[in-house]
Amino acid sequence: MKNFILLILTAISSVGFTHSNENTNISKSYLLSERCPPSFELTEQGVCRLLTQYQFYSSVQNKGLGGTQTNLPPHRDGFTPAQIDLGRYLFFDPLLSKDGSISCASCHQPDKGFSDDLDRSIGITGEKVARSAPTLWNVAFVDKFFWDARANNLEEQAQGPLFDPLEMGNTPAQLLATLSANKTYLALFAQAFPEQNTIELSQVYTALTAFQASLISLNSRYDRYAHGYHGALTENEIKGLNVFRSFVARCAECHQPPLFTNNEIAVIGAPEPEGRALDIGAEKTYNAPKLRGGFKVPTLRNITKSAPYMHSGRYDNLRDAVKFYNDGRGNAIPEGEEMLIHWHISEPDLTDHELDLIVEFLGTLTDESLTPQVPTSVPSGLPVIDSKFQAVKQQTAKQQALTTQQDNQNNNNVNMHSGE
Q1: Kind of pairing, strands 40-42 and 48-50?
Q2: Inter-residue contact 168 to 98 (CB < 8 Å)
Q3: Domain containing 16 — which CATH number?
Q4: Is residue 284 a part of any domain in this protein?
Q5: Euclidean distance between CA atoms 71 and 157, whole angstroms
Q6: Cα separation of 222 and 237, whole Å?
Q7: How does DSSP classify residue 330?
Q8: Is position 94 within any domain?
Q9: Are 154 and 302 in contact (CB under 8 A)?
Q10: Is residue 185 part of a domain?
């Protein structure tokens, strides 16, 4: 079964990637949009500027629990419509990977909260990588990227998965050569970056940044409540919000409205999946032992769409993820480990009903109204990665995991008999 699935994937990947290099029968109708995405206005300078109702509030996001009518932190915008649209094509095009088998959208699927339903994502090798794929909603407001905060901007972040051998596995030279050999992309880059007549890697990073910065989710039922329409939430959801923001639960200390993150690193002692060693997280990034096991505080926007949760996908449902914080400070620290748990993590001792209310409230943060259109085709001619295609890769990974587990068990049995 494993070999059969791998054979299918190899055939799909090989045929598609060869087609992209030939540049035959590729539609000449690709034209980049001249209009900004919804929630953006086109300025006199020809760039897109984000408009939100939150910008009319005078208070800025700061430390503490945060009020509902709170302004947003600085954000990225100012890209042209053409740059944003080019980034959309690149994001969904498997051409960006080494073998044409996966795209950015493979791990950041729009219908899954721009995540992928996996505890840890799968790269071109068919194996799981170290951590789960975080959502991309509202990354325009983020100033630290990856779970361990090792990138400071979206351009730097884009290079991580592109050139990681376990993720997209490409190289700068191959990526540039493949794009430059594609006549359609040559024309699209010329439209998006008219000041240059060749494709540059910096343009690729800019286009991907432009598209990701356009992924705005600020029109949930919670937002309508925050802007003054209290009928947007049910009685239980309002109670859940009050528990969430209380000085007992302290959820909003780190998940501050309106982004529901504070863009900081926190050591919370989240458990690893059984059998996996401790992930030291931001300790490596900052060479700081006090950040051992520390990770970026994720946004809770569209949280119901992006299970499983935590950096390693340890919890497959929100109830268990919320309960972890209620189980006591440092409840999952491995024996022999010392971690400086964030001071906001305490012993809230919430009731089961209060935990349920928090989960119910988190459902009000769902807003996919500005989900971009998935291209029906991409300039490379390769298949656009969708959930069905990704499901085949997931099944391959499961088969590989089962085979590895069986091989390990057989080896253990051999060793046991050898010792008798």
Answers
A1: antiparallel
A2: yes
A3: 1.10.760.10
A4: yes
A5: 26
A6: 9
A7: T
A8: yes
A9: no
A10: yes
